[in-house]
Design a protein that fits this description.
Elements (H helix, E strand, L loop, with lengths): L1 E18 L5 E20 L4 E5 L13 H9 L3 E6 L10 H10 L1
Parallel strand pairs: 3-4
Antiparallel strand pairs: 1-2, 2-4
Helix pairs in contact: 1-2
């Protein structure tokens, strides 16, 4: 079992600087971490499952559409992931992407 914290992030500035050959944009961004964070507990398991609790758990998917599921698949891992959601879902603070980055770490 591993527990990690995924801090919220705030983008201070963002500029599109070009387009890559694959169509994705090149960006120059300045971001800072905030003091609020989701708490993520990862336990190896034969299949991937995700549970979400906490003050901002409403509306957070627990199926394969959750980016945490994709992050585990990229690592070739399966696990039960328990997320205590302290970052508002859809609030523009990077909660989903920081959760996935924490799983990759």
């Amino acid at each position: 079992m591993t527990t990690v914290f995924a801090p919220a992030k705030l983008t201070l500035s963002l500029a599109v600087t070009g387009v890559r050959p694959d169509g994705f944009h090149l960006i120059d961004a300045e971001m800072v971490s905030l003091d609020i964070a989701d708490e993520i507990t990862i336990v190896d398991a034969p299949t991937t499952t995700i549970s979400v609790t906490g003050p901002y758990s409403s509306g957070v998917p627990t199926d394969a559409s959750n980016i945490v599921h994709s992050a585990l698949a990229l690592c070739g891992r399966t696990a039960h992931v328990s997320i205590v959601k302290n970052i508002p879902h859809g609030g523009g603070l990077g909660g989903g992407s920081t959760d996935a980055a924490a799983v990759l770490r």
